[in-house]
């Protein structure tokens, strides 16, 4: 019983690490732009397929990790600058913006489906033999993933609080018009946010398929609800919140799965969000309607 | 409020006793996560009276108005409409009892015509009820006609009849303010809370709006108005309350209040 | 089961599309009431249709044979017409009440949409995984039309009759929705959609209104599910993926948000004509390429609509004051007391 | 008013598109060619069904057309996508029936859409060779329904018999929670129960999870000595990969559905070819021995290679493909025997060209069959899947064979489970 619990908890931390990378990216761009970006999962898929192609080309999987990150960043900038701005110019409202991102995700996902011939591709790189500690067994790459998540958290937090750009970003997220009048170039801040969050998103895609060992056009789309749930749960805009929420979600899903309810594991993760909503609507309530679009 | 047009029963407790205030705030406080936006404000508004709230930015005026209307959660104090304590009631119930308000940013229903804006407000207990609409179509129809007449009556009074079929979003800023005020009047309010009603109103129309509001008050309403333009406040209000840092720092007639050195200090800081 | 369908293949096909049109129109009307009028973004819409379909199926399939039989389910019984449709309607309503009580709490609209989308995913996973509930991912089969015995055929065995039956129910409900939308209640919904705070400051009970429209829409969704399942005879998680909700949303966007005529046009264009045309196109590339591209086009259409015609082909109609039978002659100016 | 005009215009435009489109479809294809439609999930979560089908039907059509076609007509394949959902399948099939006057046979429908589609095709009098394992069709009364495919329970019983032969006593059932996989689970469980073999773990895998580590550790702690399994390829890859990396690999017996390229590739990639060869067995419908029919099948696959979605090798070893192939060859021979391509006429000849009987000439491919029929003989088509013998419910299923994949990707036979042995197991609970 305890062994099972410990084993599941270890798995949960691994899942949490993947979730955390994605949730950090999501919350970063969401807190700044206020667009609930439903194409985030599709960009994850782009990152994942990039890593897969690198692998097929026979290059180092670490290069795949790097190029997946770059692909995610570029795709996000392209979508943010190329597409979303078009709508922003036509004064599309926040909510309609979310609808636009949904349309984008349909186009990207099914575009990838068309190109990938709707097939599932195996991605079995970087697997190693497990390290055992009693009931806990983790592979080196899983330890690596946890490490990557922690390093990213520290790095992004530090950048937000220590660099000038990071401070500008936080200021813009809180009060865009005020930031603008203080001489902050919001457009540059937004660009950087697209780059960083897109990079995190692409990286999350690669890390995700390293763990699942396969990639297809639904890869990101299936993971997205968990990301959104973690971001909302963590209190939008807070990186640490996103990480803690990811940890909670990861532990709960894996422990539920470990105790026989594999089918209910994701449901349990969402159930947490629902409970939080019921008990503490304030957690997701902040700012209500008067947020503005920043692009 | 027992005219032929009155819709819905008025709570007898809400009808003010002669000489008593129609709206009273006792020690109302509002806190946002540690910050006290409103810190123990008490005031009273009497029927037929226009009370102005002035004060520098961030004084807590809008938060106070929100607490009165129920949009903002109050952390302390009581709010009385007539002799009834409405502190615990949600906004729509306060409105049904006769406390209505406008908002700092105009809040017209943008994709509804001016006429619809007006009649919607008056619904309260009839149109908002699915049951009444389904089970009593005849009664609903008659009520609709009453409302329609009433809405046109009010539009006449404000010379807005020509805009009846325009969408809220098609109006000018000043017209939007008027729609908000007209919409409030359709409800037969006891108290009208106005949050910066002159913003966006063309200068040559402010005079007329002031006269209109004074006329409304003369009908027996209490009006509480938050306003920045001191000239407007001077012409519109019977009494003025000055707020700064969430507290009332002065109250009285306009001229004596603006002369108060404490008030001048607050404005200058 | 053997229905001797004598109707020509073409009319059979068109009839099926028309039955689907009725079901889609019901869905679109219900969603338009929620979204176009009340501003509630129900991204979990398809769940309520599914609930109706499942309930209509199990209350007509008879008691379940349990684990030993090839399908197992709860609530098995033999309800006669029209109780099975009522049960479906009720199922949609009750489920939306339960979901509405937490999902409709006051929050940002995009959060709300996300939460409802998540509800949709949860429901799909629970039903797929929990076999004793509605036979898991295999779904239920063998559902018949209540008048099947009477006409000696299944719904697909006498498609014209079924179309007539569905069309009458659909027409009545759609007219009802239109009537409600134009009533003072519908006006209150629009006020809530346009400015929630102002609507409540004018005395509208937002919480209650939102729940009302959610439950009413859920009931109609349940009914549409019941009508659909009695026609196709089977229902499984494959039929109610969350993407189905977006097809209906696209129909509303394309046709015209808040305008029922537009919604009808959209329903004809998107889920019917647009999704059927690819069947007539010669196959290109590998099998399935056309299908992928079809969804790419749905996405593009969705985005282009939002860019160029955010209010749809036929935008919401302006309700002139004269429509309310109001007096245009100057009425005596009336004070506030 | 404008709205109404617009609506009319839209409706007219739509109608004209429809008419134009169906006009073009009707005239497509060569003159005199006949259509064999594949009613199957081509997209969606069950899209592998579509691949399985075209891998079998296309070689069959290649063989038939190269032997001169059916009574001078060439056969063409037309895929009809059901998306694995009855609601999508219904209009798709009706559109097919409405626009395809030269439709002679249907391959399919698959499991998910069969309950809705079988009655429709039956009313339209189109013979179908269904690959739907549902036990509901074990006693089918549909006149145009033909199944050369074992019911799900038969495959499960064969797996249990194989486990018994290998002296496995502790079985772990690991099945995906998707429709296809769950369909096969009851047959496996009921057969194990009937043979008193202990099930130490029954694990359900929800497809597309990021990790199955918890399920893996659950499995390892149950200490099974064999795993019986079916799931989609991606899920299996993840699961068995994690099982191996946590050191829990034990022998695996897969259902027939696991013996398809995507699944085999995914799991082989995940655990490596050596381990795969050592641990994996699948029970598939199989010929009793390599026959001329198998040679014909292999030739047909090679001939149709450029049209196939997968490599020749994986198509050759795909049991579903072989089943489809046999079904189409049988139907085509029935047309020749009936001297008619009219579905309602040749339907009655289907058992006549397949079932064994005294004095019948055994044929192993289409050309042989045509030759024998033209010579006035009665024939028995012995298929690539072995003996075809339809019972009164239009069901035919043969022996099951235990196979594995060699490291070089060739099918290696490990032994046989006979129909007689399968039928001797008193499986209860699966109707």
**Content-based structural category of chain C:** mainly alpha
Based on secondary structure, the structural category of chain D is alpha/beta
Number of domains of chain C: 2
Query: Tally the helices of chain D: what do you get?
Result: 17
The largest inter-chain interface, given as chain pair and residues per side, is: C-D, 61 and 69 residues
Number of helix segments of chain C? 13
Approximate shape of chain C? globular
Give the helix level of chain C as a range of percent. Answer: 55-70%
The value of Rg of chain C in angstroms is 21 Å
Q: Which parts of chain C are unreliable, with pLDDT below 50 for 5 consecutive residues or more?
A: 1-6, 325-337
Largest sheet of chain C: 2 strands, antiparallel
Low-confidence stretches of chain D: 1-7, 16-31
Listing every helix as H and every strand as E from the N terminus to the C terminus, the arrangement of chain C reads HHHHHEHHHHHEHHH
The biggest beta sheet of chain D, please? 7 strands, mixed
- Averaging pLDDT over every residue of chain D, what do you get? 84
How is this fold's topology laid out?
The complex is a heterotetramer of chains A (295), B (269), C (337) and D (431).
Chain B: E1 23-32, E2 35-45, E3 50-54, H1 61-69, E4 76-81, E5 84-85, H2 91-97, E6 99-101, H3 114-123, H4 130-135, H5 137-157, H6 173-186, E7 191-195, H7 203-218, E8 222-226, H8 230-236, E9 239-244, E10 247-252, H9 254-259, H10 261-268
Parallel strand pairs in B: 3-8, 3-9, 6-7, 7-8
Antiparallel strand pairs in B: 1-2, 1-4, 4-5, 9-10
Chain C: H1 9-37, H2 45-61, H3 83-103, H4 109-129, H5 131-134, E1 140-141, H6 148-151, H7 159-182, H8 184-194, H9 196-201, H10 206-232, E2 234-235, H11 243-255, H12 260-280, H13 289-308
Chain D: H1 2-27, E1 34-40, H2 48-66, E2 75-81, H3 86-99, E3 103-110, H4 114-123, E4 128-131, E5 145-146, H5 152-165, E6 170-176, H6 179-194, E7 198-205, H7 213-222, E8 226-230, H8 233-245, E9 252-254, H9 261-271, H10 273-279, E10 280-285, H11 292-303, H12 312-316, H13 319-338, H14 343-346, H15 350-354, E11 361-363, H16 366-374, E12 379-381, E13 400-405, E14 411-417, H17 419-424
Parallel strand pairs in D: 1-2, 1-3, 3-4, 4-5, 6-7, 6-8, 8-9, 9-10, 11-12
Antiparallel strand pairs in D: 10-13, 13-14
Helix pairs in contact in D: 2-11, 2-13, 3-4, 5-6, 7-8, 8-9, 9-10, 13-16
